Amino acid sequence: MLQRFIRAAVIGVSLAPIAAAIVGPTPPTHPARPGSINYVEGQASIGITPLTSASVGTVELDRNQFLTTQTGKVEILLLPGVFLRLADNSSLKMISPDLANTEVQLDKGRAMVEVVDIHKENSIRIGEDGASAKLLKKGLYDFDADHNEIRVFKGSVQVTSGSRKTTLDGGQKAVLGGEKLRAVRFESRQYEDEFYRWSGLRSGYLSEASVNVARTYIGTGPGWYGPGWIGVGWYWDPWFGAYTFLPADGIFYGPFGWGFYSPIAVYGSPYIFYGNYPHTFGEFHYPYGHGFPPPGRIRR
Known about the structure:
This protein is an alpha+beta fold. The protein has helices at residues 2-23, 194-214, 263-268, 281-284; strands spanning 37-46, 49-50, 66-79, 82-86, 91-97, 102-108, 110-115, 124-128, 131-135, 139-144, 149-154, 156-161, 164-169, 172-175, 184-185, 233-237, 242-246, 251-253, 259-261, 273-274, 277-278.
């Protein structure tokens, strides 16, 4: 068992420099905000301005701007603990980048939203085909403008289209634009495609980055936290060249099964390289260690 975990840890460590090399280690010039570009792969642009690896942490999707991908994918931050990923050949408009009222509109293609943390005070809405979807719980949400569908792999979302409303829970979808708006069951395996797997891989990298960053905020006394800690939120990892999410306490698990770690959780774990205690991250990274959750399905 221990050897299996160690092998998993070695695999994950070997992949991490690849992610860092793709993104680049350039530090951001200002704190992250809703709409901040967190990852760029392939061809993408805001308006007529191309996005590159140098855009990560330095460029934001502002109000009324359009983010468009060609043969490429982009990850943006919505709220601390909420990541939106845009697929190839897609277009997304920022309606409101406010922390108290965050709203985007998917005009073309597909977007997936991973919610690791959400509060009742948050208002996160995704517009599609004249409908508005308000995210209610932690989970994984799939928005498909090309097929006029909203799918919930895990979580809960309230969909409003004109005077019609319905609530979708995990394993349910709604087809937009018809006479009726209702929740129907769907088979998740049908949509666990390359974009789904890419989103899970990004979640795994950000989880790994959370441990890497959390270690730097472990307090040396008398407090629990070290210098620079501002509480729950986004924190930049220069090694991964991206923002990740750190909770204030404990471990927050995302829908793919990856954990996002607080400094206290890292300090208290017996499975982390800290001080003179050479333990393995693979054991700590419940339930899958490093690498993608087998066989690529979300954590129920």
